[in-house]
Amino acid sequence: MIAPPPTTATLFGMASALALFGWGLLGVAILFRWHRLRDWGAGLAIPLALATLYTAIIGIHWWNAEGGFNSLADVSLLFQSDWLLLAGWVHFLAYDLFIGTWIARDAEARSLPRWLLIAVLPLAFLFGPAGLLLWVLCRTAFQPAFQEKK
Predict the structure, then answer these.
(1) Angle made by CA atoms 95, 101, 102, in degrees to the nearest 5
(2) Distance CA 67, CA 58 (A)
(3) How far, in Å, CA of 74 to CA of 71, rounded?
(4) Phi, psi of 69, rounded to the nearest 5 degrees
(5) CA 143 from centre of chain
(6) Helix, strand, coil percent values for the chain (each to nearest 5)
(7) pLDDT, tens digit, for every residue of 59-96?
(8) Are 58 and 70 in contact (CB under 8 A)?
(9) From CA 34, how far away is CA 31, in angstroms rounded?
(10) Burial of 69 by CB count in 10 Å (0-12 exposed, 13-18 middle, 19+ buried)?
(11) pTM
(12) Residue 30 CB coordination number (10 Å)
């Protein structure tokens, strides 16, 4: 007997759980300074798994969709498809985790304190671009202070 294909609800749950696991890995990697786990696990393997799911959904379901990117009304039409709505969600999950990992790497590369990440990473998790903006503002504000202490 062949199993039925997964539903959008099932894939939504699986993708969300995988992304949450990735954010957990990122937190553990930052806490214990496990760079490989941060870079390869949270920063690459999980975002690539999500990117694979995204690409498969788009590859299969894009051609049947109405709408496009020319207007807000066209984007709204795209997201009337549960499959493309799921693709949009997976897109956010993959990029937000990728950006969160980049922020963590950037903090270390600039020798900025890990406590700065306490405010930034939850914002990147929930509202990706706002977290990125906050990070750029934080690193701009704090970088000179920490360079002087060296």
Answers:
(1) 85
(2) 14
(3) 5
(4) -120, 10
(5) 25
(6) 80, 0, 20
(7) 999 999 999 999 999 999 999 999 999 999 999 999 99
(8) no
(9) 8
(10) exposed
(11) 0.92
(12) 23
